[in-house]
Write a structure and sequence with these properties.
Blueprint: E1 11-13, E2 23-26, H1 29-38, H2 44-47, H3 61-67, H4 79-83, E3 85-94, E4 103-116, E5 119-129, E6 135-146, E7 149-151, E8 155-156, E9 175-179, H5 185-193, H6 203-208, H7 218-233, E10 241-248, E11 258-268, E12 271-279, E13 285-295
Parallel strand pairs: 1-7
Antiparallel strand pairs: 2-4, 3-6, 3-10, 4-5, 4-8, 5-6, 9-11, 10-13, 11-12, 12-13
Helix pairs in contact: 1-5
């Protein structure tokens, strides 16, 4: 991530406490199979719509819900602020699995803003509820607007819940896998997830933004890594998933491979915690400090 000192004339208004629009999404077989296909996850629980009990919604679908409910129409931002924004991290907690037939309503609220050396660090919390009003998932997510200056003091309404921490560094991974990333992966993911940003699909836009090429979405990167963790460490059962988190770092260039590896696995109190990372083809972290928490089958 390129850092830049705050610019005096690039002022970011604080929106702490403000809510996004609330949007509702029908979770049907088409949306489930499309999202799973967009990240190459062909687990039968996402794909076999004749299975008993119906399909399980891919946990990565929370990114579609968040992306399409992120707007604050009553707040107009300088376009340059939008261009300078980069996704920094995500932390999702599940009360239960998403399932076929759910109608999920997603709404976010800005919960913190503070000045940091590269610019303004903000975070939002999205609650995703079913039609009975019960929480299905909560996403905390944050980003940095590079070179911006916060208009006002630092603010925090609610702290982010603490994450499990690795007990060791170094050593051999528990498992590691190199994965190909197709040249068309960003285009497929864009259409299957309904998450469109032209830096991922239009090369001239990516080059104008200072990128070396189009890049794969950060949400796709972490969802591909999550696919491997669920399939390798949780028996391919997404219903066991309780939480996943990670930090968005380096770029993944389509057509170049990535490596996903579990660097530590810990079990206790009926839970397994998998610490993971994704490396791009240069060996740099694309996803750093990844954590997945899920139930242990008794």
């Amino acid at each position: 991530m390129t850092t830049a000192a705050p610019t005096a004339d690039l002022v970011m208004p604080s929106d702490v406490g403000r809510y996004t629009v609330a949007n509702s999404f029908t979770v049907d077989a088409r949306s489930i199979t499309a999202f799973a296909s967009g990240v190459g996850d062909f687990n039968e629980c996402y794909m076999d719509d004749a299975r008993a009990g119906g399909l399980i919604g891919h946990p990565g679908m929370v990114f579609s819900f968040q992306w399409n409910s992120r707007f604050m129409p009553d707040q107009q931002l300088d376009l340059e602020l939008v261009r300078r924004g980069v996704h920094a991290w995500v932390d999702v907690r599940f009360e239960r699995a998403i399932r076929e037939g759910d109608v999920i309503t997603s709404q976010g609220r800005s919960i913190s803003a503070r000045q940091v050396a590269p610019g303004v660090l903000t975070s939002q919390r999205y609650e995703m509820r079913d039609s009975a009003g019960e929480v299905v998932a909560v996403m905390d997510t944050g980003g940095i607007t590079r070179g911006a200056r916060l208009d006002g003091p630092d603010q925090e309404l609610e702290p982010r819940p603490s994450l499990p921490q690795r007990s060791q560094d170094g050593g051999e991974p528990v498992w590691s896998v190199e994965l190909p990333i197709d040249a068309q992966a960003p285009h497929v993911y864009t259409e299957c997830s309904d998450i469109w940003n032209p830096i991922h699909t239009e090369r001239r836009v990516a080059l104008a933004a200072g990128l070396p090429d189009i890049i794969l979405h950060g949400s796709a990167n972490i969802t591909i890594a999550l696919r491997e963790v669920i399939n390798r460490s949780f028996g391919g059962d997404p219903a066991r998933l309780q939480r996943f988190a990670g930090q968005f770092r380096g770029m993944v260039i389509p057509g170049r491979p990535v490596t996903v590896r579990a660097v530590e696995v810990r079990e206790g109190d009926g839970e397994a915690t998998v610490f993971f990372e994704m490396l791009n083809d240069a060996g740099d972290p694309a996803i750093a400090n990844g954590v997945v928490v899920g139930a242990i089958l008794m």
